Amino acid sequence: MIIVELGHPLDPQPAALLAQAQALQAEIYDAEHNHALPTDALAADDVRFFIAREGDVVLGVGAFKIYSTYGEVKSMFTSPDGRGKGIAAALMRAVEDTARAEGLSALKLETGDELDAACRLYERHGFTRCGAFGDYENNGVSVFYEKAL
């Protein structure tokens, strides 16, 4: 059974998953186009960080950062052992439910143009492509999504 709950990004298992995600992004994108929050920034008061676990094993992570009226989805990642188990969908539901409960009107996110599985996940969950937001710029590499809550 997959359990999704609030977690801490600096705990060993989530930190290891975040390191895997960051390594993958570094293989694909140069530093200029890599917008992942540093692991310690995911522990900030304005971030809600989730883990998905099966028993004692953390198989996925996801988060959102709170802005005035919206949340920005950050650091969604499922370990290779966890793929195909519905973990990303469960994390996405937790992110959406918590953002809604916090009174946010929308979720937004930036992902990379080569991360097809991520784009499919967001589209399955009702996100639609949008323009750059916040401090992002249209750079030909980033893909932006939003979803009203």
From TrEMBL:
Domain of life: Bacteria
GO-annotated molecular function: acyltransferase activity, transferring groups other than amino-acyl groups
UniProt-listed CDD domains: NAT_SF
InterPro entries: Acyl_CoA_acyltransferase (IPR016181), Bact_Acetyltransf (IPR050832), GNAT_dom (IPR000182)
SUPFAM superfamilies: Acyl-CoA N-acyltransferases (Nat)
Keywords from the UniProt entry: Acyltransferase, Transferase
Pfam (any one): Acetyltransf_1
Name of the protein this chain belongs to: IAA acetyltransferase
Originating species: Celeribacter marinus
